[in-house]
Amino acid sequence: MIENNPSNVSAAFEMLLEEIEAEVDFVNRIGARAFEGREYDKAREALERVAALTAFRDKVAALRKEWDAMAAVADRAEDEETRSQRRNMGRLPKGVRTPEKAFYRPILQALQEFGGTAEIGKVLERVEELMRPVLKDVDYEPLASDADLPRWRNTAQWARNSMVKEGLLKADSPRGIWAISDLGRKYLAESGG
Questions:
Q1: Are 15 and 96 within 8 A, CB to CB?
Q2: 106-142: buried (b, 16+ CB within 10 Å) or exposed (e) per residue?
Q3: CA distance 52 to 31
Q4: What is the model's pLDDT at position 84?
Q5: Can you give the residue range of the structural domain that contains 44?
Q6: Domain ends where: 44, 64, 87?
Q7: pLDDT for 18-28, tens place per residue?
Q8: 123 φ/ψ angles, rounded to the nearest 5 degrees
Q9: How far apart are CA 176 and CA 7, in angstroms?
Q10: Which of 17, 102, 107, 125 has the largest CB neighbor count within 10 A?
Q11: Are 69 and 26 members of one domain?
């Protein structure tokens, strides 16, 4: 039986987002193979499916954000006894990845260290160094859809996508290059960076 714990809902959102991301990766590979094989109709279908999946993922991410805000309000309203009871109801199940939001500051810090812009590989290499104490074993496991892609790298790339939408990273940087925005610099300074 699932305990009455708001963090279980957050964990469920994380697992759902991870599965959607795995599906996006899978369809991307199908589309790439179709394009390489000059099967343009099939490649177009894959592109349309990825667009729909990405839009759906963004809706789920927005719902997760809304849930987190609701849970924070409820948490502030709880008395200490109820909070203590909730804490003692059990821990999150093993295997829940590090949340996307945890990657924001390390990504911004890495970009700041590189002068504001860098290739994705360099950024992710530095992010891993910065997050090594935080990343869980499950974060280093490969995605089911791509045995060569550790879960944390996938999460970091989705974090980058969200950061672009929030204005923390530039949307117009060249492909394969990540660039911090003025808002990202402000966010980093305010978060102690």
A1: yes
A2: bbbbbbeebeeebeeeebbebbbebbeeebeeebeee
A3: 14
A4: 52
A5: 6-87
A6: 87
A7: 888 888 888 88
A8: -65, -50
A9: 34
A10: 107
A11: yes
